[in-house]
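Title: Prediction job returns without error message
Component: structure pipeline
Severity: low
Priority: P3
Assignee: unassigned

Description:
Job completed but the reporter wants confirmation the result is attached to the right record. Sequence as submitted:
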Amino acid sequence: MVFLPSEGRRDPERAAAARRQRERFARDIGDEVGRAWAHEPRRPRRKFTVGTGIILVLFAGFGAFPLIFGDGSGGLIKADCDVPGVRLGTDDVAPGGSFSWQAAGPEAGPYLVTIDARAVTEDASGAVRPTGGRVLAGPTDLSGCRSAAALSTAPEASGVHEVTVFRRTAGRWERAAAAPLTVS
């Protein structure tokens, strides 16, 4: 095991040797200012600088305070027991890429989340089929007035697509909310 001297317990002979070496080097290259500085003792670096203070203030402003004073609801959309809604994690995604979504609304459902569906029909056996799109989730109820955030695959076709939430009321499926998704 090797013990290296710390800054506080530096060997005075080694410090003098280092000073002489700095002086010789400054003399060899003709650096008069360096020769003058060779006789100055080296000050240890301060650990707290102005840059450290600026970084600390930026962290507090952009990171810590929003976390502390945030409402802590998390997710993409706040729980709303009155008005159905849907929110996407990103509005722009690559073809076939992943995007996140979350729906909110009254707990009474059921709800169906689709992409590019104009309408939803239900046959006699109770199977739900979207017209012109595909189902992302459901039929399901929204416990706590909001669904869990989910990850889905975007369509392969470029353009603007629509993520739609349908709600079953009075024996039929009605469009409750929608959000655009740009695939490019």
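Comment from assignee: result matches the submitted record. Residues 10-69 form one domain.
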